[in-house]
Amino acid sequence: MSEFDEVRDFVVIGSGGGAMCASLVLRAAGKDVLVLEKTDLLGGTTARSGGVMWIPNNPFMRRDGVEDSFEKARQYLDAVVGDHENQPGATRERRDTYLREGPGMVEFLLDQGVELDRVGYWPDYYDDAPGGCEAGRTVVAKVFNSNELGEWLPLLRPSFSPLAGPLEELMKIGNFRQSWLSRYIMVKTGLVNVVARLSGKRLVTAGAALQGRMLLAATKAGVDFRVESPVRELIVQGDAVAGVLTEMGGQPWRIGARLGVLVNAGGFAHNQRMRDKYQPGTSSKWTNTAPGDTGEMIEE
After folding, report:
1. Alpha-carbon distance 165 to 206, whole Å?
2. Which strand (E) or helix (H) includes residue 191?
3. Which whole number is the average pLDDT over 1-26?
4. 95-127 burial by CB neighbour count: b if 16+ within 10 A, else e?
5. Any bridge partners for residue 226, and if so which?
6. What does pTM read for this prediction?
7. Of 3-17, 66-80, 124-138, 166-180, the least confident
8. How far is CA 79 from the centre of its chain?
9. CA–CA gap between residue 145 and residue 69 (Å, rounded)
10. Alpha carbon of 47 to those of 16, 79, 272: distances in Å?
11. What is the CA radius of gyration of the chain?
12. I want to staple 297 with a disulfide (CB 3.0 to 4.6 A). Which of 151, 214, 265, 284 is the partner?
């Protein structure tokens, strides 16, 4: 790979949830990993989201006595998704793989020091369908003191919420005009955040907590991150992707990848031209995704 400016084992494009998790997996296998983020902040749209993962039969359900199984979750997906030729991303094989590997992913992240838990009550969207679960199959990150990131703190993309607290409580604050419970939660959450600030903590919740915790684990594991490093091209040799063309100091920079390249660059919510083609009648002004969600890595 002498034609490259540098060579790594594995290159990840984008820094969302999938990027963080994949980076941890490769580092656990002893491989050299480089994450390239084109914006000036890490975390992708995941950091701006609720950070809620739908993982059937997860270890927290077993801990809390919530009944679930691979078979029950499969029944649910069969009922609400079914089999359609125009949905190649949701084939039965893909669904079964997701259901088998999801609980193992949660266990892996816990082993990496990423603190997670389940939301106490978050029903499946179609919980009355066969195999549905009313208690919920969701997994979220625990509230995170982002000051633990040290020098990496300024690079974490901010949360959608100015307040930090358990997600199931934050979801109720919007009803404060009608509910005394919501008012109590709002006051309690505000006080917790004030006390945290006074004690030198900077709490984040939801997707920012998930990304903050995974970023902390990844940096401790030795993952290399670069911001403001847009990928301009995938370098193909034969029938395989051998690396990427990015930028270093404003100049073209070719990076080889011995084991592969993961494109985790998000969607195209900020690309009006692609919206007009694939989601006609929608506007890029409506989105709350990260500004880097412009779709160039998935354009034809």
Report:
1. 8
2. helix 180-198
3. 94
4. beebbeebbebbeebeebebebbbbeebebeee
5. 36
6. 0.92
7. 166-180
8. 26
9. 34
10. 7, 31, 23
11. 21
12. 265
pLDDT tens per residue across span 283-297 = 999 999 999 999 999
Both tokens of residue 229?
């490093």
The tens digit of pLDDT for each residue in 90-132 reads: 899 999 999 999 999 999 999 999 999 999 899 999 999 999 9
CB 231 within 8 A of CB 36: yes
The total of other beta-carbon atoms located within 10 Å of residue 73's CB is: 25
Spatial CB neighbours of 4, under 8 Å, sequence gap ≥ 6: 243, 254, 255, 256
Q: Reduced to 3 states, what is the DSSP secondary structure of residue 180?
A: helix
How far is Cα 138 from Cα 94, in angstroms, rounded to an integer? 19
Strand, helix or coil for residue 120 = coil
Rounded distance between C-alpha atoms, residue 28 and residue 113, angstroms: 12
| CA distances (Å), origin 26, targets 37, 215, 271 | 18, 14, 31
- Residue 18 reports pLDDT greater than 70: yes
Residue with tokens 């208690």: 135
Residue 130, CA distances (Å) to 33, 112, 201 in order: 42, 35, 44
Counting other chains too, the contacts that 95-101 makes at CB distance below 8 Å and 24 or more residues apart are: 99/56, 99/57, 99/70, 99/73, 99/74, 100/70
| Structure tokens belonging to residue 8 | 């790594």
DSSP state for residue 244 in the 8-state scheme: E
As a dihedral over the C-alpha atoms of residue 44, residue 48, residue 208, residue 138, rounded to 10 degrees, the angle is -100
Lay out the sheet containing 33-36: strands in order across: 224-226, 33-36, 6-13, 251-263, 240-248, 233-237
Q: DSSP letter at 224? A: E
Chain position carrying tokens 């990304």 = 211
